[in-house]
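Z., the sequence and structure:
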Amino acid sequence: MSTTAYWVKSNHQMVDVGGQSHIFYIIQNPTLFGLSKDDVETCYKKHNEKLYLEGKARVELIKRATQSGWIRVRKYNKYWSIQFDQYKKRKAVIHYFVKWAVSEKKVMSQYDPLVLVGFDDNYCESIETKTFLKTR
């Protein structure tokens, strides 16, 4: 079953989260993201949150995943959110994913809005998919 939520690391590492949340996928597969089960549990304890809760621990773990090279992609009602650590480091993979999502997977339209957010470099841009593909 196809969803509109992905973890992307390279042209060869695109993971459809299968209807699960991004944090659920990290918790179930921590080593894929450069984490251990203990890292995940310690993070939740640090924030005094229950495992799987979508709170501060979730944000921290998603940021840590992006620092390991992963890109978080989610389709919301009217736009696609693409989160990463630094745009300059990830722009080629982001471009590859968007092109794949439009041309091959056909889950994204050339007119869909993209919201690009970099955690470490504070990059933020809203751009139409077609424009993004032409200018990158």
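Residues 87-103 form the longest helix (17 residues). Residues 41 and 81 are 27 Å apart (CA to CA).

Let me know what you think.
H.
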